[in-house]
Amino acid sequence: MEDDTPPSKPNPLAPPDNKTRHVMPLGPRVLVRLVASEDRSSGGLFLPPGAKDAVAKAAYGKVVEVARAESEDDASFGANVSGIPEGAYVLFPKEAGLPIPWDDSLRVVDVKQISAIVEEIDREETH
Q1: Does the structure show a pLDDT above 80 at 86?
Q2: I want to staple 106 with a disulfide (CB 3.0 to 4.6 A). Which of 35, 87, 100, 102 is the partner?
Q3: In sequence order, what are the residues at sequence separation of 6 or more whose Cβ sits closer than 8 angstroms to the Cβ of residue 28?
């Protein structure tokens, strides 16, 4: 059986195959990778792609890079100046942040726009 779907167009903003990009936020900002929401409702119904995101007022993501002070030692990146730890899960308004043109899952978010840091704790530890 042949696939009749047309080939997808390459993203013109993506880096060439032999290169990668590293985004370093400046000032009090962090780089956040959006975490996809589950595809089931609380009642167990499957939701079509984007349905849950359409009504959501907040976005959930993981901080993948933070703003850093200039380092005197060129070998290191310097101290975190954002105030939010790298690897933290955060909540922020759905429309907040600057989308990265070549990767829809990444946003540069101002620390002032982050509403909360979310800590995931095992249920067994809470009793």
Answers
A1: yes
A2: 100
A3: 67, 81, 82, 83, 110, 111, 112
